[in-house]
Amino acid sequence: MTDFIAEMMERLPDRLLPLDAWHRERGGRMVPFAGYQMPVQYEGVMAEHLWTRENAGLFDVSHMGQVLLTGDAPDVALESVVPGEIQKLGVNRMRYSVLLNDEGGILDDLMVTRRERDLYLVVNGACKYDDLAHMREVFPDEVVITLLDERALFALQGPRAGEALASLIPDVASLYFMQAGAFTFDGMSLWISRSGYTGEDGFEISVDCDHAAQLADRLCALESVKPIGLGARDSLRLEAGLPLYGHDLDETVSPTEGDLAFSISKRRRSEGGFAGAERILEELAEGVDRKRVGLMVEGRQPVREGAELYVGDRMVGKVTSGGFAPTLGAPIAMGLVKAAFIDMGTVLEAEVRGKRIPVTVAPMPFVPHRYHRAKAV
């Protein structure tokens, strides 16, 4: 069990997902997370993790915030608080980015898609109301911000996700990684992107809440698809080296410290003009004091979030995510580590219940990504 799952089980419930009854009918073990009752597992985290690596898993991520930005120049407004290139983003193209405070810390990470008449954002469920409040505070009045509470969101992930979804909606086969479009299926209006947070090929599918059960039933009727809980989603994203907001990233961590410098586009590096640009551009030029790194753990005992990392008697960092990696058959972790100790192969020690466990700085992803990318011409 990862720290993520343990935390979910300690929180109080708030809202129900549109498919709450659907999950319970299929044996979903519901736990509180991000203000919702969420299915953490059905058959078990290990089995669901391995199924997704080999077939296709359907995740209910309706707790995430789906947001539309419309009105006058929403791309310009968004660029004031994210470091990515939004103004030149093509129609039906997506970009990962981070929402920044004035000090260059990360308030949330998010996906941005340009559509014909708006920008479509997907933000983290635990942050969505704070994100909306922040954007409303800093954006001009001409930009309209709308939370799509009437839409559910699914993630279909795994090496057979493409064939599975195309068997129902053939036109999705034309999508490559980080592309999106509007589709109609069985009377449902869907917004589908080829994206996800497991490191596998897959899709995120936005559907009206009234049609969510209908779509889930059609997908899970396919022999390659099973419903998968958020426990496996967490272990999959950890193997993929993908950060989890509130754990690996927070408002004290900059994109450069979080190993997300790729999210800072070339024009933005040159022009600046985004929140926290002074700090972030200085870090790009001069380096950072700490950085998010991958850690391979010696032995079988997982190293959990919060474990202190040492070189001798000197504390040099902390673990931010940790757990067992089913694909590798070994424990892995991520941590924020002082820059002097982030070279690949550097051996540190994690303190767990008074015992020191050797960990080695390792490249990420731990398991290679298998996104369905367009071939270079």
Topology of helices and strands:
Elements lengths: L2 H6 L6 E2 L3 H6 L3 E5 L2 E6 L3 H10 L1 E5 L4 E7 L2 H6 L14 E7 L5 E9 L4 E5 L4 H11 L4 E5 L3 E7 L3 H8 L11 E6 L2 E6 L8 E7 L3 H9 L4 E3 L2 H10 L26 H6 L5 H10 L3 E8 L10 E4 L2 E12 L4 E9 L8 E6 L2 E8 L15
Parallel strand pairs: 1-3, 4-14
Antiparallel strand pairs: 2-3, 4-10, 5-8, 5-9, 6-7, 7-8, 10-13, 11-12, 12-13, 15-18, 15-20, 16-17, 16-19, 17-18, 19-20
* Rg value: 20 Å
- Seen as an oligomer or otherwise, the chain set is single chain
Q: What is the CATH architecture term of the domain at 3-62 and 150-239?
A: 2-Layer Sandwich
The CATH class assignment of the domain at 3-62 and 150-239 is Alpha Beta
Q: Estimate the strand proportion.
A: 25-35%
Instruction: Give the overall silhouette.
Output: globular
Physical arrangement of strands within the biggest beta sheet: 11-12-13-10-4-14
Main sheet overview = 6 strands, mixed
Number of helices: 10
- Which structural class fits the helix and strand makeup? alpha+beta
- Total DSSP E strands: 20
Query: Helicity, in percent?
Result: 10-25%
Can you give a write-up of this model?
The N and C termini lie far apart (about 45 Å). The chain contains ten helices and 20 strands. A hairpin with an 8-residue loop joins strand 12 and strand 13. The longest helix is centred in the middle third of the chain and has 11 residues. About 5% of the residues have low confidence. It is an alpha+beta fold. The strands form four sheets. A six-stranded mixed beta sheet has the order 11-12-13-10-4-14, sandwiched between helices. A six-stranded antiparallel barrel has the order 15-18-17-16-19-20. It has a five-stranded antiparallel beta sheet with strand order 6-7-8-5-9. The radius of gyration is 20 Å and the shape is globular. Among the domains are: about 150 residues, 2-Layer Sandwich (Gyrase A, domain 2), CATH 3.30.1360.120; about 90 residues, Elongation Factor Tu (Ef-tu), domain 3, CATH 2.40.30.
